[in-house]
Write a structure and sequence with these properties.
Radius of gyration: 23 Å
Strand content: under 5%
Shape: globular
Structural class: mainly alpha
Largest sheet: 2 strands, antiparallel
Number of helices: 6
Helix content: over 70%
Distance between the termini: 48 Å
Order of helices and strands: HHHHHEHE
Strand order of the largest sheet: 1-2
Oligomer: single chain
Length: 237
């Protein structure tokens, strides 16, 4: 079974790399042709941005494959030797945290290069190092607290119920619903929400929501542009 998983994942990875190489070559050929919907200058910039992301994605995909091989042949055994405690639930939680932490550290250089090199060069990134560190600390704290609670709950369900798959599904589904309800609250830790000013835009949004039968407690503007210069939109209903 393990050999089949390795073969299938290897095949998937090599196909993905092949498609990415072909796509990069295609974009390099097409980016200097006459565009239809934008100026030639913007079309070239868009092509260069896609090529830069594609090249980074190629390296990232290959590293992901090496990480996969590492976990399969040595990583899980190595990590299990580090997490040796009596509590089965805490052992499972720490094991998952360790697995996620290692993958995050390996992927961090790619994230930083994407944000502070590629996006910076093309004028998209507005995030400072200080803002990035604060966001990372906040998201990490949320993940440790909330993610740890969810991991512990699932570990307890698996060790306590014969039909653990059913109760696990119910628990995850409930968490997903609550996450969508509470998402604006969590986003308030990272962004500032300002009520939209009275005017034509607010009236049009309210009218559109009434047309489809939606009610709202307010329409807000989120300052997402302080991190990224690309077009974005967000509303709370």
């Amino acid at each position: 079974m393990l050999e089949m998983i390795i073969i299938l994942y290897s095949l998937y990875t090599f196909i993905k790399i092949y498609i990415s190489i072909m796509q990069i070559g295609y974009i390099n050929e097409e980016k200097r042709k006459t565009p239809v919907l934008m100026s030639a200058e913007k079309y070239l910039v868009a092509g260069n941005y896609a090529v830069a992301n594609g090249k980074l994605g190629l390296v990232s995909t290959f590293v992901d494959y090496l990480v996969f091989i590492f976990w399969v042949f040595a990583g899980f055994a190595w990590l299990s030797t580090l997490v040796q405690i009596d509590s089965a639930i805490m052992q499972a939680v720490l094991f998952l945290f360790g697995f996620i932490a290692v993958n995050y550290i390996i992927g961090l250089p790619f994230e930083l290069y994407q944000k502070f090199k590629i996006d910076e060069d093309f004028g998209f990134n507005k995030m400072t190092i200080k803002m990035y560190i604060l966001d990372t600390l906040k998201s990490t704290a949320l993940f440790v607290v909330i993610g740890g609670a969810i991991f512990a709950l699932l570990a307890w369900i698996i060790t306590s119920f014969e039909a653990w798959w059913l109760w696990g599904f119910v628990s995850i589904f409930t968490v997903a619903v609550l996450a969508n309800v509470l998402m604006p609250t969590f986003m308030g830790l990272f962004n500032k929400f300002t009520p939209i000013e009275e005017g034509e835009l607010k009236d049009q949004i309210s009218k559109m929501m009434q047309t489809v039968g939606l009610k709202n407690d307010g329409i807000f503007i989120m300052d997402a542009s302080k991190r990224d210069g690309r077009l974005n939109a967000f509303s709370e209903a």
